Amino acid sequence: MAQGQANMTQKIVILTGAGISAESGIDTFRSAGGLWEQHRVEDVATPEGFARDPDLVLGFYDARREALAKVEPNPAHHALGRLEREFPGELLLVTQNVDDLHERGGAEKVLHMHGELKSALCMACEMRSPWDAAMIERPPCPVCQAPTLRPDVVWFGEMPYQMERIYAALAECDLFVSIGTSGAVYPAAGFVQEARAQGAATLELNLEPSEGSHYFEESRHGPAGQLVPDWVAEVLGS
Ligand code: BJW
User: Fold this and answer.
1) pTM for this one?
2) What is the pLDDT of residue 6?
3) 153 CB under 6 A from ligand 1?
4) Is the CB of 154 under 6 A from ligand 1?
5) If you compute the radius of gyration of the chain from its CA atoms, what whole number of angstroms results?
6) Is the pLDDT at 173 greater than 90, yes or no?
């Protein structure tokens, strides 16, 4: 994206994926050695897998929630926190990630479309509650007291959060930026085509070309910890 074009941008939608947290030490899903090589997707990321073996699924998410305490946001998270504070136009930061590294990197208005590790969803009363403990022992729901909590994450076959708001922002944005996502999972993988159809410029920042690279007008390849701070400096003109 040319410097002049960056300065004219008024409305930006950013989509992030597991790649932005990789340099913080959180495993991605589809890379060699990633989460889907360690676990079968059908077992740990579907409602059917949870119904079959809840202990396996609760243990999987308990371990990932616990691991969050040992990692820190990296320069890419901090750069997006800076962008949120300093960009004079409208910014919607949508993440597929369930970690809290964007928030800890200074971004306050993050839309977690696939839910959050630090949130619990009650299957009885359907309330979402902030949550920072293990679920394996079936603690009671803070709202209705039923022992029916599950991780507040979006599994395959479930509807991601706040889709209406995301599509409304995509329809209005003049720049869509995708960071650290493989483009393998819908509906997020379709956002680039949605934004392009509305006339937005599109930019991919990823370690390597993703499955959907050819949909982007511009792709930059390398680690998010370098690419994102550079791009943010461009947008902010510094
Ligand atoms: C770096 C880097 C560095 C590394 N710097 N980069 C057939 C066709 C189309 C769709 C479907 C279909 N059959 C079924 C579907 C729908 C299904 C789907 O997409 N399936 C596909 C497998 C085909 N989708 C769903 O079911 C979704 N719901 C749905 O569609 O509802 C209906 C609906 C209809 C219409 C509108 C709206 C809704 C739900 C999907 C839920 C996904 N859930 C998970 C688990 C969440 C909880 C958890 O974390 O455990 O979400 S799966 C997993 O994948 C997780 C992620 O958010 C998601 C995306 O992964 P991500 O972030 O892209 O990670 P990776 O590992 O794939 O990629 C990392 C990238 O980073 C790589 O490119 C690296 O190169 C790069 N990278 N290091 C920069 N340092």
Assistant:
1) 0.96
2) 56
3) yes
4) yes
5) 18
6) yes
